[in-house]
Design brief:
Elements: H1 6-16, H2 20-23, H3 42-55, H4 58-76
Transmembrane segments: 53-72
Keywords: Membrane, Transmembrane, Transmembrane helix
Length: 78
């Protein structure tokens, strides 16, 4: 994420906010900073992350951890 000169943006915003027609339509609460998006394919990124999760064996670590944790919780609750 690239944030360029936050102080200049806020100074410009305070200058613009003195205009009554803009001030009534836009609030300072809705000021959003822009970011650089290098790969906008969100679904593709999710698919690659899930494939990596499966291929790296992390799914087995998750399942074993859930089973062992459930068994430990069952033994320690008495």
């Amino acid at each position: 994420m690239v944030v360029l000169d936050l102080q200049a943006v806020t100074t410009l915003w305070h200058t613009i906010s003195y205009l009554p027609e803009l001030n009534s339509q836009v609030s300072l609460d809705w000021l959003v900073l822009a970011q650089n998006v290098t790969d906008p394919d969100v679904l593709g990124q999710m698919q690659r992350a899930f494939s990596n999760f499966i291929n790296s064996g992390q799914v087995w670590a998750l399942l074993i951890g859930l089973v062992v944790g459930y068994m430990f919780r069952g033994m320690s609750s008495y």
